[in-house]
Task: structure prediction
Amino acid sequence: MTLHFPMLFEELHRLDEWDYERIGLRGNPAYSGLRRGDWEEPLVHVRRGKLEDELIEIIERFISGDDVKHVYLFSREGGAGKSHTQHILRRHCHERDIPFMDIWHEDMRNNLREAIPYMLEMIGRERCVVFLECDHPPEIYRQLVEIPQCLIIGSGHEPHRELDGVMDRFRVLDIERDYPLSHEQLYELLKAPMEELRIGDAEVVGDDLLRMIAERVKSPGDALNVLGVLLAIAAYKAKRGEEYEITERDVRVWTRRGMPKD
Result:
């Protein structure tokens, strides 16, 4: 079910941090545009099975001088957790003093073949890990694969387009198919931000409902979006001066709906 109901959604998107404080929360952890609050790191730190361990091993081998294939994290839909996985890898690089950099779309105008070796020369290092978020033009990947000092960890939904001409240089990992999250992991993913966001003692979405959400969705993004819209509804009702309890009915309706990503 996909329903677009502007009279409700516009009100939910107008909510600010003060509205969430009214119900005892510091914000909203949604993956969508309902997200509120300012956090330097994701609130969720659930590891995706063996995926991070495999990627960390690849990074360590590359930094030690081994020749390894570059990596592309593939998912069919947004919200699969690619950015969270890259965040874990960035944190690992930082803790291990491994040089890393992020490549953005505007870097298309840069001469990466010259700029990246220059940056490494400035700090006296020989190799680095390069992270790319979703949907980069293939020209960026073509530049990067010509830089032997780089291990590329890209991500997106269209490997055949983004990696056009360099696909054989990459190991494409289907994270939805080969590294699915269990119901228990999705539950932990939902529980962590609720504990982090809570200001008072009020339980806006009960533990049983968090488990119900986890059993009905497949991706981290959808899980956080369902939770986010439930929190938004609670905040919206409180703003109107109405008492409203989130129940199984709310979960049923929103886990059946195609969650908006914006």
Observations:
- The beta strands are 70-74, 100-103, 128-132, 150-156, 170-174.
- Residues 220-239 form the longest helix (20 residues).
- The radius of gyration is 21 Å.
- The mean pLDDT is 88.
